[in-house]
Design brief:
Layout: E1 7-11, H1 16-27, E2 31-36, E3 50-53, H2 59-68, E4 73-76, H3 83-88, H4 90-110, E5 115-121, H5 144-163, E6 166-172, E7 174-176, H6 194-202, E8 209-212, E9 224-225, E10 227-229, H7 230-245, E11 251-255, E12 261-262, H8 263-274, E13 280-283, E14 292-293, H9 298-304, H10 313-326
Parallel strand pairs: 1-2, 1-4, 2-3, 4-5, 5-6, 6-11, 7-10, 8-13, 9-14
Antiparallel strand pairs: 9-12
């Protein structure tokens, strides 16, 4: 791994993806400061860095942080990310995901920090018109969560044009799995991600899972998603950070495996990994859920040399299962 030897502010670094990122940054010899309000993050997930508890929209706190540290770049993982919740509480999402990011960018400009890595999402695309989805696919989000992420991307482009703030926006498909050391993994409350819910059903923590929608225009009627291991995700961020620090231009990249798996596929593969039967019941569709989201990640592979290590769903589920068993 290349040693970057830079000082990085990671906002939302005590969350699932942020904690994996902090670990990789520390391994790359970066000096990491983590800002997290712990509304969804967990202090115990952090494997390095200096921890500051607070909100990314707290301008006074941000000014103190930026005055105390000569940051080379900022990484942003602090968005709310539940599609269903965003449908019922859109203003919560616009305040946290958009308005508080404005405060963060303003603080960066006040302190002349102009390198920004943004955790975006495949939800910016909405219902796909072509599969696999490339970065040139039209953006038409179907939920407030996707709307807020796309609004930040557009704001970043405007900040680049006006202030020379260079950014990389990384559009995740479905992050999954856990660090192989078993020290970091998904720890959400409530849990909304499919794989950890399936694993809870596998070991009897819950009686069954609910499959939301079985009448989609897919092979088995359930939603199809593209899963990417969280360490592969973090490695892509590290490559993007290095490119920006070396003087690279702003860019937007998809992050996925380019393979699609239905909900029933995930259940079947989890049964194979765990050796346990996973009961499920059929439920109505959730508002805002597209039928198919599968990425083309060719652009980041070409530009930055990114190549996922965890190249099949069974390997991803196995790491998640190992983490799950350690939590018992």
């Amino acid at each position: 791994m290349k040693n970057l030897n830079k000082k990085i502010l990671v906002v939302g670094g005590a969350g699932y993806i942020g904690a994996h990122m902090v670990r990789q940054l520390s391994n790359a010899r970066c000096d990491v400061v983590v800002l997290d309000n712990l509304s969804t993050g967990h202090r115990k997930l952090l494997q390095g860095g200096e921890f500051i508890q607070g909100n990314l929209g707290d301008s006074d706190l941000l000014d103190r942080l930026f005055a105390a540290h000569a940051f080379d770049a900022v990484m942003h993982f602090a968005a709310f990310s539940q599609v269903g919740e965003s449908m019922h509480q859109p203003l919560l999402y616009y305040r946290n995901n958009l308005a508080e990011t404005v405060a963060l960018l303003e603080a960066m400009l006040r302190h002349d920090v102009r390198r920004f890595i943004f955790s975006s999402t495949a939800a910016v695309y909405g219902e796909p018109v072509a599969i696999p989805i490339t970065e040139k696919h039209p953006c038409a989000p179907t939920n407030p969560y996707g709307n807020t992420k796309l609004a930040v991307e557009r704001m970043l482009a405007d900040c680049d044009a006006a202030y020379g703030m260079k950014f990389t926006a990384l559009r995740y498909f479905n992050a999954a799995g856990a660090d192989e050391a078993g020290e970091i993994g998904e720890l959400h409350d409530p849990e909304t991600h499919l794989i950890p819910i399936v694993l809870r059903a596998a070991d009897g923590q819950i009686d069954h899972i609910r499959v939301f929608g079985t009448d989609y225009a897919t092979t088995d009627g359930t939603c199809i998603r593209d899963y990417i291991h969280v360490n592969d995700l973090a490695q892509a961020h590290l490559l993007a950070l290095d490119a920006l620090l070396e003087g690279g231009d702003s860019a937007t990249y998809n992050l996925g495996s380019s393979n699609g798996y239905s909900v029933k596929d995930v259940i079947g593969k989890a049964e194979a990994v765990t050796g346990k039967k996973i009961p499920f019941i059929e439920a109505a569709r959730r508002p805002g859920d597209p039928a198919i989201l599968v990425a083309s990640s060719k652009k980041i592979q070409r530009d930055l040399g990114w190549s996922p290590v965890y190249d099949n769903l069974e390997k991803i589920i196995q790491t998640a299962w190992n983490w799950h068993l350690k939590q018992q």
